[in-house]
Queue: 2 jobs
Job 1
Amino acid sequence: MTDKISRETIRNEAIDPDFVDSIVDAGADRLRTCIQCGTCSSVCPSGRRTAFRTRELMRKALLGLKDEVLSSPDLWLCATCLTCLERCPRQIKVTDAIIIMRNMAVEEGHMLPEHRKSSKKLLETGHAVPINAANLEKRKNLGLKEIPPTTHSSKKALADVQKIMKRTGFKKLITEDKEEN
Amino acid sequence: MAPKSFYHFLGCIIPHRYPSIESAVKLVFKDLGLGLLDMEGATCCPAPGVFGSFDRVTWATIAARNLTIAEAGGHPITTGCNGCFASLWDANHELKHDDELRDAVNENLAVIDREFKGTIEVWHYVDALYQLAGLDKIREKVTRPFDGVRMALHPGCHWMRPKLIKQKDDSERPRIFRELCETSGATYVPYKDELICCGAGGAVRTADVKIALEFTKQKFDSLLEAGGADVIVTPCPFCELQLDLGQVEIQKHFDEEYTFDVMHVVELLALAFGHEPDEFGLATHLQYMQRKSTPAWEKLGIKVEES
């Protein structure tokens, strides 16, 4: 007998029972107490205009759908405004959970090319938004130090922060093109 | 004893895109008797929603390196950016409370002969102005009140959220930023979407600028429904970039024209304290540079010599 219901069966292989533990251990307290009320989605300014659904993401995390969650570009649509966290009736650290999952996604090689570019800027200059010619000119006209007293004016400081990024593995994380989205 | 001098954490957007904020804060802090010290060798904070999303330990270590520069000199840090504040305040807080993270970070810092000790505090300009200078002293300095100017606010997110951790203001009904801005004499204009994010945060602007701009458009439309405003004031340069340059980008991507003047709170106060716009370069905002336009001086009640 056949029916016309379109079923979306979640297979056992898709479920990683340790996924939620790893998120909680990394600091997203009370994630298991989620009652799927949807407050997070309803206050989300990103969800208002994109397919990003915070409640769905929390549910998938609880189910252990690790690969699906980590490979989804939607994970990157949260603006981290913290409104969901402020309003969650269970006081779940929703935004923390999202950041933790993003860390895991990057570790698995899921990183948007634009984000890789920003990371390379940080690695090369010590700044995500480095100085440019137009602003050197503006600074000069305003009587400010043309080159600000940041890593832009200290080779030692830049070398130090680059050392940190090499040591933590960040340099490898962003320069190794494991798997583009 | 309350500090009188701060290490001035510049970050990226203030010195590299909106240096007028850097000039304005120097004027305002000087007028109020607050010192700003250069923080030699500081890096990107690093952006919390961006680099914090990629690798928490790297984020915390680079933030901690910035904190150690201030620890060595024994003064607290002040920053005029919600994002930098989120990185430095949060990292400082987490490193003081999470031994495991602190150990990991200090092992990394040992490679460059630094150690996070947890001896200083991080202040937003808003905190320094509100708590240290105080509203009364600020009001005394106002010589050019913005009488009759309609002022909308965009407090942004990370200066006050999460409220249970930051414990400064009720982020659902904030009043501190409003009270500070009202010292300028401008009239506060409430609008429905005052508290929504500008759209730039969390690596969204980098990932997809059009989605980020849709947040901004929602904010502008909500403000227009409330009757519009002569100026939008924010405590954050990244929000300022999104609201200011964002208008040029909205025109490009959506073919809709908005013409709001946007100021950082220290730019508003510099003007209210009687400084001329040229003294700190108000007209260098990216919106004016790219549109080849000027601030709506008349609406702001500021007389300028036409050059």
Job 2
Amino acid sequence: MKIRRADPHTLLGAYALDALTEADRARFGRHLRVCESCRREAQGLREATAKLAAGTVTRPPDRLREQVLATAARTRQLPPPIRETSAWPGRRWGMAVACGLLAVALAVGGIAINTQRQLSQEQAHSRAIAAVLNAPDATMMTAQAADGGTATIVMSHLDGALVFTTARLPILPSSRRYEVWLMGSGGARPAGMLPAPHQGMTAPMVVNGLAAGDKVGLTVEPAGGASHPASRPILLLSLPV
Amino acid sequence: MSERQSWPSPGDREASPPPAHDQLPPELPGDLGGLLARVARGDQSAFEAVYDGVAGQVFGLARSVLRDPAQAEEVAQEVFLEVWRTASRFDAARGSGAAWVMTLAHRRAVDRVRSQQASAQREFRASSPEIDYDVVAETVEARLDAERVRKCLGALTEVQRESITLAYYGGNTYREVAGLLGVAVGTVKTRMRDGLIRLRDCLGVDW
């Protein structure tokens, strides 16, 4: 089993130095779009790295100037962009989405397009999610499942709860479903069945009753669920205390 | 600042020789953002001013990362065309014009190095990390602004400094830097970030 825990903020320095691989950079770029404080810090660090270039000043060959100006003169310019800021998932919700919640925020945004029928139930659900996301100690983790796919978890000890979403988990036969567990010193406690995926992602589920020292796990169980995990977890993540 | 030499304008380029290496503008023009706004509207004289203000840095940075002057020249040309083409994307609310241009330049150089670097070359780079810093240190000594950079780099811890220089001047990823320095990947990530924060504060960056 491969478990990866990433606080994306530690990548801010590497990002500002272009020291991320392409995949890391793309992932971090998505994170920046939903994390305003990260954007601010990244800007400041970029200003610093731009100054580092002063240490390399070298006169280019004279022909470069002519080539550049001549090529520019016959190159069409891009029109001003249509700013995408108002389309950020968090904005529509009108709440300050905590940093690092892109996956969750997108999934939460998906709730809004569900049917009217369960509206009040979903509003309660959304409030529960918002409570975790906005908790002062909200922490995000991402873990990779054994057979592919990832789980993104936002947890808050203050709230005693976590929000659990997944992306790109292997599709199961209809007789089987994913079940979420909290695993503490007293053994595994069932925390609910993972909802069916929508475009590869599962809507966020709220897991309450989080205790210090718990791990969160994911197993494949019969569709009706199980009270004890019958298989090895495909994902097991220690939560920070 | 009053002694700062400006680059020759197109008209007197033939008459007066370009300034010597150590007389290049020591820092980026302060109104680069304003120039870029004009470039976005198709103003070619503003574009010339942008070129004259930052060509030494763009070319120098590309040469530092790529090592090869011919490739550095190609990258510098690509960078300036991108500046011309995408100037309307520059947003002064998100950072200075200098940071915008130098970010384009550094990314281009790094992308090129990563896309074409054969594994053999990579091993060679990995075996001679000291080259990155020495080349830089040599050119840094010449200029005032560069001197400040050097002083601020010198105030960092060794791991902070080497993490930053190997990545920025050498174009290495943080994993490669970790391998070169023989320290944990997590340590490098952390040192890059706190090193840059110290550098930012030391250089008095207003962001």
